[in-house]
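Extended Data, record Phosphate transporter
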Amino acid sequence: MLHFTPDSPLSIVMLVLCGILVCVFEFVNGFHDTANAVATVIYTRSLRPGKAVILSGIMNFLGVLAGGLSVAYALVELLPPDVLSPPDGAPAVPMLLALFGTALAWNLFTWRAGIPNSSSHCVIGAIVGVAIGDAFVHGRHLGDGVDWQQVLKVLEALAFSPLLGLLGAGLLYQVLRAVVKNAALFQPPPEGDAPPQGWVRWLLVGTCSAVSFSHGSNDGQKSIGLIMLTVVGLWPTLYALDPHQAHLLPMPSAQAAHMQQILTAYDHDGLRTEALAAADRMQTWSNAAALPPGSGALQSTDIPSPVVQRGDVFQVVAGLKKVERNADTPAQVKAEAKALRNSLKPVVEFAPWWVRLLSAMCLSLGTMIGYQRIVRTLGEKIGRTHLTPAQGASAELVGAGLILTAGYTGLPVSTTHIVTAGIAGSMLGSGSGLQRGMVGRIVLAWFATLPVTIGLAAVLFYGLSL
């Protein structure tokens, strides 16, 4: 599968299948993760389930449209450059099938078990698995085939954010307890269908909206990045390069030469050959384009295809990133490498408006079904007592703040982990305690997610690439 003929009927069919898979994954992400936002308003009777999921769906939709792309490409850059743009424009069907199939399967498994698990961890584990599988396919050392520093950066955000959610929600609950003297905030809702007092009810509606919006702004970016991998495979001529930034290529001749000099002097790892070869091609193209007309200037037939240009940009970006991380690189050269990398990234790191809209629609529609299993776990099975308005508000306020901050700083975090940990923290802060059996199952699933998805994606990619 690794060498499908570009634009052949079979390759197009497989890429359409990949497109369907990523949309289904984002749909499942919607109903898997929406429980984190609606559990509090449902279990405090602030909103009926139907209204709660519609509100959450709308806010998820708006969050995706308002979010940026930093998280999207923080994930995409975990993949090796040659997987992002395979040689000769051949679509990366094995990568897409392994990635989407693995993430979707584990997400559905944990949802079926009623365990609030992280869709982000599923995607990241699958991406790392694909990178490992690609290293085996090409006979590379794992240190060369996987960008472990980028992986560690992402995993640090995923590891620390639940701890911040746990501690932050527990502390906020204590602050509310000390400042707010209204007993209704700290007691379970009354029997029957009556909602809490007016201001308590609207506080929870507001926190539900904030978590849903922040979830869309962060998780929506992840699906945008995945959809773009499929879009480039289906329409490489149209979407390999950003039509609005393609004028940045070819680079000015002096800039291309400087880039080549930096890579030659300071890029000393396994990517050096690929990055330097790409830099050589880019410099040759830049030099030819700088010649005056009639003196052997660049002809239209000499312009590389958009896919080749895309591949070269990703190779050079990866090489410059290695230079920045090289301990022997002088500070000034690191700054120059970063500036060059940032000047190239807009050419390949983009998303058309309709991709954003597709991601928003899949995520928001997914929020409206299938949420009951996870809601029941969050509302009934984490703490020893019924969820109170103060506990729900503490978990969601802290969660929304952490997720929004991460979304606009380019760090992918897990809405599920943050809010679930926040609910647990609010339970501990109130002294009500936790149900150890369910908490143990949740933590076990969290620890199992990365090894399972990494292993499954690596095996699938390797098998499909033969």
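Summary. The chain has 20 helices and no strands.
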